Amino acid sequence: MTEIEVPGPEPDWQPATQPSYYTGKNPAYQYSVWEHHAPLFQMIGGLALPVQPVAQRLRLHVERSWDGLDDLDVVLFRLKGFSFAISKHDGIQPAVSCVWLTQPHEQADKALDALLEVVGIGEDAVAFRGDPDEDPAERTDTAHDAGSPDEAPDVTVPTSLWARFRRAIGRPQ
Q1: Are strands 71-79 and 126-129 parallel, antiparallel or unpaired?
Q2: Residue 87 contacts residue 100 (beta carbons within 8 Å)
């Protein structure tokens, strides 16, 4: 079998995992598995500690990934009938790990309580419950407010999970 050689990258191509989103010379933009799936997740709270102690307690492997915000540590696992993800972005201070359900569930508080019980930590480890940026009176933005040139003005669209998350951690959109 003959060996096929693939040429190296062009000298002016930026790494595909780095911004500037779709504006650099590299024709490819790589997105992470986390970035692809996380918008489907339901944020149920935050823990005032990194991912590693929880992972060690449950004997989980911490994965390093990235998304459009920063590098992050993440674990995905099932526990007491709930599918969880716990993530911690490198750039977020103080150290708060976000707790997500990978499949939205009506009993988010029950899920968080089950996690606390099995991990053996109390309510003092909870930085917040629910989605810190979700205001029940303000669950949608308009396309006009979001600055979307592709949408008709004042058409109501759901607020993006990533947009809410960026606001919650104080990152520009």
Answers
A1: unpaired
A2: yes
Lookup: tokens for 17: 């995992």
Residue keyed to tokens 């569930």: 105
113 and 129 Cβ atoms separated by less than 8 Å: no
Residue 65, beta-bridge partner list? 72
Confidence (pTM): 0.67
The pair of structure tokens assigned to 62 is: 């911490």
Of 62, 68, 48, nearest to 121 (Cα)? 48
User: Interior CA angle at 143 toward 43 and 132, to 5°?
Assistant: 20
Q: Cα Rg for the chain, rounded, in angstroms?
A: 19
Span 12-66, pLDDT tens digits: 888 877 655 556 788 777 777 777 777 788 999 999 999 999 999 999 999 998 8
Q: Which residue has the tokens 């947009």?
A: 163
Structural contact between residues 48 and 125, judged by C-beta atoms closer than 8 angstroms: yes
**What region does 109 belong to: left with phi over 0, alpha with psi -120 to 50, or beta?**
alpha
pLDDT tens-place string over residues 61-112: 999 988 777 889 999 999 999 999 999 988 877 789 999 999 888 999 999 9
